[in-house]
Design goal:
By secondary structure, this protein is an all-alpha fold. It has two domains: 265 residues, ABC transporter involved in vitamin B12 uptake, BtuC, CATH 1.10.3470.10; 324 residues, Orthogonal Bundle (ABC transporter involved in vitamin B12 uptake, BtuC). It has 29 helices and no strands.
Length: 689
Amino acid sequence: MAVTATKPVTRPSAAPVSRSGAGAVTAGLVLLVAVLAVWDIAQGTASVGPAEVFKALTGRADASDASVVIASRLPRAAAGLLVGAVLGVAGGVLQAVSRNVLASPDTLAVNAGSYLALGLAGATGLSLPLLASSGVAFVGGLAAAAVVLGLSGLGTGTVRLVLAGTALMLGLNAVTEGLLLLFPEQTEGLYAWNQGSIGQNGFDGVLQMLPVAVIGLAGLLLTARRIDALALGDDAARGLGVPVRATRVTAVTLAALLSAAAVTLAGPIGFVGLCAPALVRPLSRRFRGFARSRGSLPAAALTGAALVLGSDVLLRAVAPDDLSVAVPTGVVTSLVGAVFLVAMALRLPDTGESGAPDRMRVPGRAAFLTAVVLLVAAFVGVTIAGVLIGDSKLLLGDVTNWLQGRAGQTVSFVLDTRVPRVLAALGAGAALALSGTLVQAVTRNPLADPSVLGVSGGAALGAVLLVTTVPTAGGWGVAGAAFAGAGVTAALVFGLAARDGFRQNRLVLVGIGVASGTTALISLLIVLTDPFNATKALTWLSGSTYGRTLTDVLPVALVLVVGVVFAVARRTELDLVSLDEDTPRLLGLRLAPGRLGFLVVGVLLSATAVACAGTIGFVGLVAPHAARALVGRRHVRVVPVAMLLGATLVCAADLLGRTVIAPSQLGAGLMTAAIGTPYFLYLLIRSRR
C-alpha cells in the first residue's frame, strides 16, 4: 500500500503582509475569551443571573448566590480557560515538531494513553491525590505519543500519523474498557470522566494543575526558537546548530505534560488541540507576529480557551438546564472536532494512489486447498470448543442428547444460552470479514475497514439509539436501526470521499472523522439516557454476544447468505474493480453501479453484524489481508478464506473472553482489538519500508 508524503508544516516562504496586525488580533482574541468567560459565569441551572454574579464578585450577594458563583461557576470558567489554553499550545507544538497538520493529543493517542494509565491505577485500588494522578496520566500519554510518532515517522504523511494514532487509541481504549468491566467498583466514575467535563467543585483542582501548566508553557516558550527551526526540516535545523533529537523529545514531553494536566483536571476534551492551531495557522500568512512560535503559541492558547468556553456556552444556551448539566463539554468539542477533521481531510492535497494492490505471490491450487482444509478444521474445532467449554463444561454426548431433545434440564439450559452465542460470534465474524473484503476491493484501499471508515460506528449509533429509547426492541428492530445508522454514515463517508476515486488519504481521514462523531453521539446518548449504568453500555460497545438468542442471529445469517451469493456470482467483476479504473471500462463494465452494489452489500453485512454482536473492530481489516496473503487476490478464493478466518477469529475471541477470567467476561470486540491493533500497526510499518 502506498502512503505518500504530504506537504509538511513549514513556515510560509513569503513574508507576512502585516507587521503590526498581530497585536490587534491578539487583543481581539483576549476580548473574545473574556466575553465568553463572563457569559459562561452568568449561565447555570440556579436562578443566579448576571446581576447576582456581579454582586457575588463584589461581595454584596447573599450567601447562597455567592456559594453558587464562587464554588461552581468561577471554577468552571477557570477550568475551561486553563484546559483550552494548554490543549491549544500542546497541539501547536506537536504539529510543529512532527511537521504534520493533524497532530494533536487526540490523534497521537495521548488521551488514550492517559486513560489507560489511570484505569490501571484505579483497577489496582490505588487512591491517588490529584497531582499524583496527573503524573500517572503524563506517563501514559507520553508513552502513547512516543509509540505513534515512532511508527508514523516525522513529516512522512498526514494519514500515517492519524492511522497509527487511531489504531493505538482503539487498542488502548479496548484494554481500558476491559478494566472497567472487570473492576467496576475500583474504576467507578472513570467512564463518565472519560467524556470530558470542565465542571468543578471549588478551585482546588485548578490551583493544583496551574503550576504544572505554567511549567509546561514556560518550557515551551523557552524552546520556541528551536521548535521554529525544527519546522524548517531536520537538516536545516542541524545547520543552525539545533540539537534535533533533544529538542523534539523535550517538546513532545512538555506537550504531553500539558495534555496530562488538562486530562487530570477535566478528562479528555476532544479535538481542541487539533482545531486551535489550525485556526491560528492562516494568521501566520498575514501577520508577521504569528509567523514564529512565540506569537502563534499564545494565539493557539487563546483560541483553545475560546473553543472550550464557547462549546460550554453554546451547550448551556441551546440545551435545557437539566440536559446542559448532564452533557459533558468534551462531547460537544468532539462533535465540533469531528466536523473539523472531515473538513480538513477534504481540503488536504491527496497525492497518494487510490489503492494500487499489494504485489504478492500467487499460490497454486494445492496451497489454496491446504489453506481451506486447515481453516475448516480450525473453524470446526473452535465451534465445538465454544459449545462445550464455558462456566459449565459439557461432552459431545450432551450435545447429541440436546439435539435429540433427550437432555436434562441443566444441560438444556446451558446449551440453549450457549449455542446462540457461538452462532452469533461465527455469523458476525464471517459478515465483517466479507464486508471488509468487498469494501477493500471496491475502494482499492488496503486500509478500508468498516470500523476505521465509520460504518460500524454508524451501525452502533443506530442500534444504541433504538436500545436506549425503546428498551423492548427485538432483534429485527435493532438490526434495522443498525442498518439505518450504517447506511447514513456510509453514504456520508463515501459521498465525501468519492472525489477523484476514493483516494486513500481522503477516504480514511473522512472515515475517522465520521467515526469520531458517532463515538461522541453514542457517549451523548448513554449520558443522557442512562448515565449511571456505564457497564451496560460498555458491554454492548465491547462486542459482547451475551444474552443472544436464535432470533438475534437470524438477520445476520440471512444477510450473510445473500452477501455470499452476491459476491460469488459477481466474483469476476469484483476482481476487475479491484485492479484499477481503466481495465473495467475497457471491458465495458459500468463502475458506478457495480461499486454501489458492492458497497450496499458491505454496509448491510457490517450493520447486521453490529446488531448481532455489538461493535467488533479490525476483523474486516485483518481477515481480508490474511486471506490475500494465503491464497492470492482472486476473490473466488479470498471470499471463503476470509469468511473462515473472520468467523474463527471472533468465535475464538468470544470463547477466550468468557472462559479465561471466568466467571467474569470480556467482550469479543475487546479481544479482537487486542489482536487487530498490533496487526494494523504492522501494516503501517511494512508500508513505510
